[in-house]
Amino acid sequence: MLEGKNIVLGICGSIAAYKSALLVRLLVKSGANVQVVMTPDSTSFITPLTLSTLSKKPVLVDYFTPENGEWNNHVELGLWADLFIIAPASANTLAKMANGICDNLLLAIYLSAKCDVYVAPAMDLDMWKHSSTQANISKLQSYGNILIPPGNGELASGLHGEGRMAEPDEIITFLSAAIKKKLPLINQKILVTAGPTYEAIDPVRFIGNHSSGKMGFAIADELASLGAEVILVAGPSAQVNKQSSVKRIDVTSAAEMLEACVFHFKNSKACIMSAAVADYTPVNVAQQKIKKKDANFSIDLKKTVDILGLLGSQKKNGQILAGFALETNDEEKNAIEKLEKKNLDFIVLNSLNDEGAGFKNDTNKITIIDSQLQKTVYNLKSKEAVARDICNKIIELIKG
Ligand code: CTP
């Protein structure tokens, strides 16, 4: 959840600042870019050197860095941050935040930040219980700031009670859960298909196609990173998912893909059918290897079920169905015919005439045509970026 996130970590003057070193380490290990900002008093509890070494960035304390005459631009830092965490948050800083006081860099960034702000208070039992602290906390929450509640236990003063800063691993869990809850596709089950299908001729041969599965796997990963519960029905493919939450169901033939799709579509919010499903399959599969005899050889083929077409006929109100059309000629006309025939909400058209599009490449160039026949043409992009465009269309349709 924290991977790639820009995080400003504010540290106030509290003995709990010793825990900040571990918090920085855990944030960095989670893949976040961490900018530590300290109040002047906090530098008495933990050295900026410790935190700059762990965060791999100079720590900021003042509006100016006198050594190089640089101004630490609080507005830029406020805009840079995807998350602002103040841990430990002292009673003094909480009171200043609640009242718009801005007498240090940390507070100036707080007032400039547009992102979510999390506070993890740390103070003695009676300071925490004090009506003024509680009123400040309520005020800060009413402004949209998020409280990471302090824990109960032995305090640095020797007293027992509430007031100790949440442990660094608890803060990471809290942040991850809060970010997850806000993801646009959280709690949405989405079915994706990818790769080719193999139609057996005999025990050693099959009819297949050149699909690598790259596009479908990229879509599945992107949907999962947006919070969706992803079921990926994959034909034979060497691809692996980057997102471990994707539930992959391996199939070989069109018939197996049909069975898995029909089963999972029933309770899915959306389905993106990117697999290159065989249109024909042998009428009979030889039980033993076919020996070569005559100069010519033919195999009787029968049509497979059009999985997307069948799902389109079963689609319930509120379900979203998307398909792909890989074309070589009359691209738009063919794509619109498929969109209408298969009762789709949108179709992703790619043309083999576009350089860098289609099978095997790491790039694709698509046009999305929706059921209103609204057309969006995209540039040639990486398959990951194309997946993002497709997922944005899904989000747009889900949000209505
Ligand atoms: N598709 C499917 N089941 C099939 C064949 C295709 O679900 N048996 C899906 C593909 O996954 C894709 C869409 O239908 O999302 C378009 O597939 P395509 O093969 O391009 O279209 P067809 O309808 O099969 O038409 P044609 O092969 O004649 O172009």
3D structure, described in words:
This protein is of the alpha/beta class and 400 residues long. It has 2 domains: 6-182, Flavin prenyltransferase-like (Rossmann fold), CATH 3.40.50.1950; 189-289 and 300-399, 3-Layer(aba) Sandwich (Rossmann fold). Helix content is 33%, strand content 24%. The protein contains 13 helices and 23 strands. It has helices at residues 20-29, 48-55, 74-80, 91-98, 105-112, 125-129, 131-142, 168-181, 214-225, 254-265, 307-314, 331-341, 383-398; strands at 6-11, 33-38, 64-65, 70-71, 83-89, 116-121, 146-147, 151-154, 160-164, 189-194, 199-200, 206-207, 229-234, 247-250, 270-273, 280-282, 301-303, 320-327, 346-351, 363-364, 367-370, 375-377, 381-382. The protein has an 8-stranded mixed sheet, with helices on both faces. Strands 2-1-5-6-7 form a 5-stranded parallel sheet, sandwiched between helices. Strand 8 (151-154) and strand 9 (160-164) form a beta hairpin. Helix 9 (214-225) packs across helix 13. The radius of gyration is 28 Å and the shape is elongated. The two termini are 26 Å apart. The model has no long low-confidence stretch (mean pLDDT 95).
